[in-house]
């Protein structure tokens, strides 16, 4: 999938977001190292903390299907600001892909790209437990 196709896959997921409380849809498209793509959207809940972000939805879907090596992820929002991942999602990305590229989109489809180490410097990971 090209970069533009991956961006389109994340944008398409905005329509699947279940966000009746925040009214803030987020879509994500995760590319594995073999090119396989998993998508996700945010799924909220009346018991607010039970909700899940779009990025973790995509990552957990990939892991459940046996994929744990990731190249890049697109995070799409509809706001004027670039939709950057929350802290918990950054830590989940760190577990599997310390060199992940994170492509953040605003509502106009413009992008700003980061490395995970830019968004989560001096991070804690699996190797610290050994
Ligand atoms: N949200 C995401 O899906 N990803 C992020 O990284 C930022 C926040 C969702 C969670 C919640 O459903 C809504 O956006 C407002 O916080």
Which properties best describe this structure?
binds tetrahydrodeoxyuridine, alpha+beta, single chain, about 130 residues, 4 helices
Structural description of this entry:
The protein has 130 residues and is α+β, with helices and mostly antiparallel strands. The chain has a 5-stranded mixed beta sheet, sandwiched between helices. The chain has helices at 3-12, 54-64, 87-96, 116-119, and strands spanning 26-32, 37-41, 70-77, 101-105, 111-115. It has 4 helices and 5 strands. The protein is globular. Helix content is 27%, strand content 23%.
Summarize the SSE layout with pairings.
Blueprint: H1 3-12, E1 26-32, E2 37-41, H2 54-64, E3 70-77, H3 87-96, E4 101-105, E5 111-115, H4 116-119
Parallel strand pairs: 3-4
Antiparallel strand pairs: 1-2, 1-3, 4-5
Largest sheet: 5 strands, mixed
> What is the string of SSEs from the N terminus onward?
HEEHEHEEH
Helix amount: 25-40%
Secondary structural class: alpha+beta
Bound molecules: tetrahydrodeoxyuridine
Name the poorly predicted regions.
Answer: none
Arrangement of strands in the largest sheet: 2-1-3-4-5
With helices defined by DSSP (H or I, 4 residues minimum), what is the helix count? 4
Strand content: 15-25%
User: Rough shape?
Assistant: globular
Distance between the termini: 36 Å
Number of strands: 5
Summarize the structure.
This protein has 130 residues and is α+β, with helices and mostly antiparallel strands.
């Amino acid at each position: 999938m090209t970069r533009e196709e991956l961006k389109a896959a994340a944008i398409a997921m905005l329509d699947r977001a279940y966000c009746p409380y925040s009214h803030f849809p987020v879509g994500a498209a995760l590319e594995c190292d073999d090119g396989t793509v998993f998508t996700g959207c945010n799924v909220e809940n009346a018991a607010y903390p039970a909700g899940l972000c779009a990025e973790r939805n995509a990552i957990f879907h990939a892991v459940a299907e046996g994929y744990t090596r990731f190249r890049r992820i697109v995070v799409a929002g509809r706001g004027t600001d670039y939709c950057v991942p929350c802290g918990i999602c950054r830590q989940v990305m760190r577990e599997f892909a310390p060199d992940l590229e994170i492509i953040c989109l605003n509502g106009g489809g413009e992008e700003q790209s980061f490395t995970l180490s830019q968004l989560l410097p001096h991070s804690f990971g699996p190797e610290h437990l050994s």
